[in-house]
Amino acid sequence: MSNRNLQQTPSGVWLFRRRVPQVLSEKYEGTYICMSLETHNVSEARIKRDAINTKINLEIEARKKSTVNDKSRFLDFFSEMREVFLKEKRKARQARQESDAENMFNNAFAPTDAGKENGKAYVEAFKSARSGEISEEFRLTISELKDEWLTANQNKKPKKYRNMVVTATKKLLEYLDTEEFPESISPGVAQKFIDALLDGGRSAGTVAHYKSKLAEVWSWGRAREKFQQNVNPWEVARIEATEEQREQKHFRNFSEEEAWTLLKETTLENVTTDTWPYPFATYSLIRMLPFLGCRLSELARAKREQVVDHEGDFVIEIWKGKTRNAVRVLPVCSHILPLLKDALSRSEGHDYLFPEIASEDDVNSISSRIAKITKSFEKKEGYITGIHSLRGQFATALEAIGCPEELAVILAGHKRLSLTYDLYSKHKNNGKLWPYIERLTEAEVLKPWVN
Questions:
Q1: What is the pLDDT confidence band of residue 421, given thresholds at 50, 70 and 90?
Q2: Final residue of a domain: which of 70, 98, 132?
Q3: Burial letters for 267-286: b for 16+ Cβ neighbours within 10 Å, e otherwise?
Q4: How far is CA 101 from the centre of its chain?
Q5: Boundary-marking domain end, from 132, 159, 178
Q6: What pairs with residue 34 in β-bridges?
Q7: pTM for the whole thing?
Q8: How large is the average pLDDT for residues 144-161?
Q9: β-pairing, 250-251 with 383-384?
Q10: Over the stretch 365-413, which tens digit does the pLDDT of each residue have?
Q11: Which candidate, 304, 396, 391, 395, places its Cα nearest to that of 342?
C-alpha cells in the first residue's frame, strides 16, 4: 500500500503530513497539516492517515457546497460589471473624459440598498470590476473551474472528451496534493507536472492528451475571466519524452490461436448476458471487420442507407471517418453477406445498421471488451493486439492474394479516392477490386474466420 501523506521520524514514529487545501487555508496555519500518529506500526499509521484524510475531504466538500453558489453569483455579477467598466473606460479615454466613465459605472452598479440585497457577492463584484483584482474568497479553485467547464460543455463536447478532462484534472490535483487556484499554476509547475507524468511511465501520447485538455479548460476560463492569468501555462509546457515513450502503439496481426480465442469469446452464446447490451453487434462486427478493413466505429455506427445493393453485389459507403481519406466504398464479399443481411433484417425500422449502438460511448464499450480479451495475448517486439489488429488481418490478406497496393490503400482509407477512379463497379466481373474481395477467403491469415 502507498505511504502517501506519511512521514517517519528518526525515532520511527509516523507523522501525517499533507498540504493545506486552499479552501481550508483560513482554518490551518502554515503550508502543511502535520501531526503525530503516535505509532511505530506502518499499518496502523495508514489506518489513522485514511481517517484523517476522510475528515479533511469532508470538510473540503462542505466548504465547497457553502461557497459555490456565492462564487457563481459573484462571477456572474463580475463578468457583466467588468465588461461594462472596461468598455466605458475605453470610450472615456478616447473622449479624454475618464471621470465620466467612473460616474456612469457608479450610477449603473454601485451597491445601493437595493444592490446590497444581492449580498456580499454583488458588493465584492463591484469592487473587483473596478480594480480587476478578485479576492481569494471568490476565486475559483481548479476543481470548480473544471466543474464549470463541464457544465458549459455538456452538450458541446463528446463524453469521452469530457471524461479525459476529469481524469487530467484529477491527476493534476493528485500531483499538487491539494486544491489550488488556476492562476497558481505557473509554467514551471505545469512543466514539472508533465515531467512527473513521463517519469511515472505515462506514454507521450497520454501526456499530450492530458496537456491539451488542461490547456482547453484554462483557455476557456481565461476567456470568460473566471480567473486572471497572463499566459496559459499548458501552452508553454513541453513534452520531452524519451525515445521509448514517443513511440506510438503498433498493432500486429492475431496468431491463429489468438484468433480462435477471440472468436470463441465473442460467440453469441458467450456475449448474450443480462448485463451486455450489444451481443449481436459484438458477434457480427468481429466477424465482418477482417473482410472489410474499416475501423470499428465506421461499421458500428453505419446507417442502413449506407448499405447499397447493386444488383446483388452489396457495398457499404463510408461517409465520414477519422481522416478525409476515410470517405470510400467497401465491397462486401459473399462470405460475410449473410451476416450483413441478418443485420439489415434485425435493424428494419431503425436508422442504423446496429441500432443498439447509440453513440460513440457504446463503440468504446465494445472496444474495451475486446481489449480485455486480447490483454493476455503476448506482446511481440513491441507490437500489441486489439480491435485495430483486424485492419491488419485484412491488409495482410489482400497482400497474400496479390492485390495491388494502390487498390489496397484506397480500400483501407489511407489514400483519397479520385472522382474519376472507376474502382467500384456495379458489376463485380468488370470492377478492379471485386475479384480480390471474393478471394479473401483464400488467405491463410483469415482461415479462423473462414472456418
A1: very low
A2: 132
A3: eeeebeeeeeebbbbbbbbb
A4: 45
A5: 132
A6: 17
A7: 0.51
A8: 88
A9: parallel
A10: 899 899 899 988 887 766 888 888 998 899 889 888 888 877 777 666 6
A11: 304
pLDDT for 186 equals 93
Say if residue 70 is in the same domain as residue 149. no
User: Tens digits of per-residue pLDDT, 134-146?
Assistant: 777 777 889 989 9
Question: What is residue 419's predicted lDDT score, i.e. its pLDDT?
Answer: 32
Q: Which of 68, 80, 66 is nearest to 122 (CA)?
A: 80
Amino acid of residue 249: K
Residues 185 and 116 placed together within one structural domain of the fold: no
Using the structure block, give the residue that is written with the C-alpha cell 463510408: 318
Counted domains in the chain: 3
Query: 330: which strand partners?
Result: 316
Rounded distance, CA 140 to CA 134, Å?
A: 10
Residues 233 and 322 in one domain: no
Looking up cell 468504446 gives 364
Q: At what angle do helices 159-176 and 204-223 cross, to 10 degrees?
A: 90
Q: What is the pLDDT of residue 398?
A: 87
Enter the C-alpha cell of residue 57. 475531504
Side-chain-facing half-sphere of 169: CA atoms under 13 Å = 23
Euclidean distance between CA atoms 370 and 348, whole angstroms: 27
Residues 256 and 358 in one domain: yes
Average pLDDT rounded to a whole number, residues 423-432? 41
Q: Tens digit of pLDDT for each residue in 96-125?
A: 665 666 777 777 777 765 445 566 777 777
Instruction: Supply the angle between the helices 142-152 and 159-176 in degrees, to the nearest 10.
Output: 180
Q: What are the distances in angstroms from CA 351 to CA 280, 295, 301?
A: 17, 20, 10
Q: Is residue 137 part of a domain?
A: no
Give the CA angle between residues 107, 112, 116 to the nearest 5°.
130
Residues 53 and 171 placed together within one structural domain of the fold: no
pLDDT band at 203 (very low <50, low <70, confident <90, very high): confident
CATH code, domain carrying 223? 1.10.150
In a domain, residue 1? The reply is: no
As a whole number of angstroms, the distance between CA 5 and CA 245 comes to 29
DSSP designation for 301:
T
In a domain, residue 426? The reply is: yes
Helix/strand/coil for 236: helix
Query: CA-CA distance, 348 to 351, in Å (whole number)?
Result: 8
Task: Specify the CATH number for the domain of residue 405.
Answer: 1.10.443.10
The answer on 158 and 35 residing in a single domain is no
pLDDT of residue 425 exceeding 70 = no
Q: Residue 68: what pLDDT?
A: 52
Q: Domain of 344? A: 251-450
- The verdict on 422 and 298 lying in the same domain is yes
How far is residue 194's CA from residue 206's CA, in Å, rounded to a whole number?
Answer: 11
